[in-house]
Q: What sequence folds into this?
């Protein structure tokens, strides 16, 4: 599970390298309905939807840039900014909410000094909330770089984040 | 292996069954997403190693399968034919478990399930109260199936329902069978499946092309049954869709999957390839002359795409915004062709109905709601997990007998069903029978099957605010009542939670609710006020406490509570002062500490840090 969702920044191609874009455009050539799939693949390659990449996509595949922007902002999965080294996703599904997910969000905001959807200025952390990751038995759940941390509390959240901040390490649960 | 006729399928099925019969034992490890978060993969790896080490490869069939349902107790291990069931398995104990259970004919008591009421260890899975009251027609197959191994599905007579339909039944007969079974859509509204299919079958298509879609965009927060079905048994969805396509006259299908479900997506893609390879999907399926194939579309994360017309727009590569109906998708859907949409659980019921016979299926459930329903039982409940129950069971049975009641002996307050479109049901209705009509009669709905239990520490105004915030963010913005109405309702609810509510606010909420319900374009807006309306109906006193007495009785809303240290209980360990982000806690070492209410931001970090349970909200 760990490796699967890992999005370490080193994995991504720099946005001035257009080869992945070319391949993706070629793969979906002629299929005008494939924008969402194209976005997903661009995300895989670059980590986010960069403005230049979007312009290139519009030009090469025959879309209006405004149309692409409209789609990218409609669907919550897509980011227009590069992500940080660590992605912290706090589940805010109903099961997590009744077990104090809000407390976790508040704690993360305080500790990292960023709001959900933002990346810290040093590009170390991206904070996100998600509607439901479907592991309600572990509620409330925080997913850091694809690793699930269940039955969290604000104080556990505090120490988890501090571990990442101090050593940038893997942040093992203390108990 | 190409299946070119029902007889070949029959022969192949027998072959697989015989191959499996050679193993006297089977050990199944739950590999659902919940258990994966509990490191079940390590348990499985340890099992593989232990079986090898003990020379049991020829005797034991081992499986890493989809979700077994009892997520609370993961990782789970199930030994058959003995029926021995282990919970919370430690990878380090796996070898001991294998030796004891398979070689010595015994058990490792430590990992058996302990009945919390009697304190007794339970030996067999079927005796565990969580399982014994369920009727697991769909989920019950999961522990037998490795999702990426088609033979496991074929060994359970998989694809025989499709063979029967293609070679022995006309499309009309298939629709009649689904009608006699009384199957209704499991995605929310409970529309009769056969009627939907018939409209689509009879609808003219300009070029004869029709589509079917499987909605696997499970967006309800707190519901994950569709994911577990698709992850655990993808072939049943494929078989169901192929049967539906034959009945409707469609040649192409789509599965619209959430991007948040990577495991479900991967298992589905593997299953599709296998089915194609064996000629169970594609051109001339099993030599019947019927062509049907399935494509996969991945969602972009938008709750509104659960709405049929929005989902179709999303597959077409547009923003997922609903359009007015009629025309319904059954008449004019994907690319303007007649299109039938059902959700994952509905599709999985289809082969089951053909296999067991519609009459037998219709014996389960109530007069108008047939079969079983899967619920995800979550929140303030002891046994979190997926439960599959016959329609007509009471909420009390689900929550207390299967769910094991509320943790920490807290008082039950409400159960929320139907996701953001549903409502909160209070204790007085716990004995209501769970079916489509009864839940609607008390202001809630079946929805896709989320069942979130709430206790005395859950604030109902806060819950209403939570859902309204969710819907306000997820509103696509196309129609004004939903886009602006939900925003206005959210503002009022926020005001009440912040202690600034006025008596007029409740009336304003009710007026807004009525307008949004009446005037919204789609069901998202049409049902958006439900959580507010049901909480106003059953928990009005909580709203009034917030407004008149500036109190949050559940101790949730930060503006209305004070965090206090019990001077009797505090032993002065100082742990709370260390974690307080605003340095509001002070006190001498080993002396009771105090919180400065002016500095305190009510984050409650100290509360969960305190081992003496000396800190509370009032």
A:
């Amino acid at each position: 599970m760990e490796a699967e969702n890992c999005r370490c920044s080193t994995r991504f191609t720099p946005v001035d390298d257009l080869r992945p874009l070319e391949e993706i455009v070629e793969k979906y050539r002629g299929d005008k309905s494939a924008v969402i799939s194209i976005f997903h693949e661009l995300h895989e390659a670059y980590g986010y939807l960069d403005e230049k990449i979007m312009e290139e996509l519009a030009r090469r595949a025959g879309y209006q840039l405004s149309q692409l922007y409209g789609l990218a902002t409609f669907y919550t999965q897509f980011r227009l900014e590069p992500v940080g080294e660590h992605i912290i996703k706090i589940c805010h599904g109903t099961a997590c909410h009744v077990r104090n997910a809000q407390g976790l969000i508040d704690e993360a905001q305080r500790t990292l000094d960023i709001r959900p959807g933002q990346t810290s200025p040093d590009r170390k952390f991206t904070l996100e909330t998600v509607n439901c990751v479907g592991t309600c038995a572990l509620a409330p759940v925080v997913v850091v770089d694809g690793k699930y941390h269940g039955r969290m509390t604000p104080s556990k959240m505090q120490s988890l984040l501090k571990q990442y901040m101090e050593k940038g390490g893997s942040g093992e649960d203390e108990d | 292996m190409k299946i070119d006729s029902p007889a070949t399928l029959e022969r192949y099925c027998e072959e697989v069954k015989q191959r499996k019969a050679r193993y006297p034992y089977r050990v199944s490890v739950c590999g659902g997403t919940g258990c994966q978060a509990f490191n079940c993969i390590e348990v499985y790896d340890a099992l593989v190693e232990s079986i090898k080490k003990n020379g049991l490869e020829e005797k034991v069939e081992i499986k890493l399968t989809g979700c077994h349902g009892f997520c609370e107790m993961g990782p789970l291990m199930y030994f058959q034919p003995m029926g021995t069931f282990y919970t919370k398995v430690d990878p380090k104990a796996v070898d001991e478990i294998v030796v004891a259970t398979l070689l010595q004919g015994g058990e490792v008591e430590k990992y058996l399930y302990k009945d919390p009421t009697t304190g007794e260890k339970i030996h067999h899975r079927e005796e565990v109260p969580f399982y014994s009251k369920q009727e697991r027609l769909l989920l019950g197959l999961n522990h037998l199936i490795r999702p990426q191994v088609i033979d496991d599905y074929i060994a359970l007579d998989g694809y025989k329902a499709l063979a029967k339909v293609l070679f022995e039944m006309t499309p009309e007969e298939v629709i009649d069978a689904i009608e006699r079974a009384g199957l209704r859509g499991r995605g929310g509204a409970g529309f009769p499946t056969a009627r939907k299919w018939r409209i689509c079958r009879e609808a003219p298509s300009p070029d004869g092309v029709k589509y079917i879609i499987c909605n696997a965009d499970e967006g309800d927060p707190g519901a994950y049954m569709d994911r577990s079905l698709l992850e655990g048994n993808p072939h049943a969805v494929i078989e169901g869709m192929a049967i539906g396509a034959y009945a409707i006259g469609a040649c192409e299908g789509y599965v619209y999957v959430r991007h948040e479900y990577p495991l479900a997506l991967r298992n589905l893609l593997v299953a599709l390839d296998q089915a194609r390879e064996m000629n169970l999907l594609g051109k001339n399926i099993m030599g019947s002359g019927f062509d049907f194939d399935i494509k996969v579309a991945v969602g972009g994360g938008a709750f509104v795409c659960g709405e049929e017309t929005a989902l179709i727009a999303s597959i077409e590569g547009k923003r997922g915004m609903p359009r007015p109906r009629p025309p319904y998708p059954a008449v004019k859907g994907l690319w303007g062709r007649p299109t039938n949409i059902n959700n994952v659980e509905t599709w999985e019921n289809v082969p089951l109905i053909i296999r067991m016979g519609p009459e037998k299926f219709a014996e389960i459930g109530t007069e108008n709601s047939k079969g079983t329903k899967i619920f995800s039982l979550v929140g303030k409940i002891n046994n979190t997990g997926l439960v599959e129950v016959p329609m007509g069971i009471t909420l009390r049975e689900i929550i207390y007998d299967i769910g094991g009641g509320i943790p920490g002996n807290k008082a039950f307050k409400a159960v929320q069903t139907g996701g953001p479109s549903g409502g909160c049901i209070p204790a007085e209705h716990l004995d209501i029978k769970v079916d489509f009509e009864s839940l609607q009669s008390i202001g809630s709905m079946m929805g896709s099957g989320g069942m979130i239990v709430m206790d005395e520490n859950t604030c109902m105004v806060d819950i209403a605010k939570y859902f309204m915030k969710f819907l306000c963010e997820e509103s696509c913005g196309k129609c004004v009542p939903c886009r602006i109405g939900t925003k206005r309702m959210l503002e009022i609810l926020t005001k009440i939670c912040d202690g600034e509510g006025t008596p007029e606010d409740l009336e304003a909420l009710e007026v807004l609710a009525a307008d949004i319900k009446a005037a919204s374009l789609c069901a998202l807006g049409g049902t958006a006020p439900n959580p507010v309306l049901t909480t106003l109906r059953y928990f009005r006193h909580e709203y009034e406490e917030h407004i008149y007495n500036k109190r949050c009785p559940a101790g949730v809303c930060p503006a209305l509570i004070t965090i206090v240290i019990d001077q009797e209980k505090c032993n002065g360990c100082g742990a709370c002062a260390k974690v307080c982000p605003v340095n509001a806690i002070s006190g001498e070492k080993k002396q009771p500490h105090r919180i400065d209410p002016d500095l305190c931001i009510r984050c409650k970090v100290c509360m969960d840090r305190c081992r003496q349970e000396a800190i509370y909200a009032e």
Remarks:
- The mean pLDDT of chain A is 88.
- The beta strands of chain A are 86-91, 125-130, 142-144, 147-149.
- The helical segments of chain A are 19-27, 35-46, 51-61, 65-74, 94-98, 101-112, 154-167.
- The radius of gyration of chain A is 18 Å.
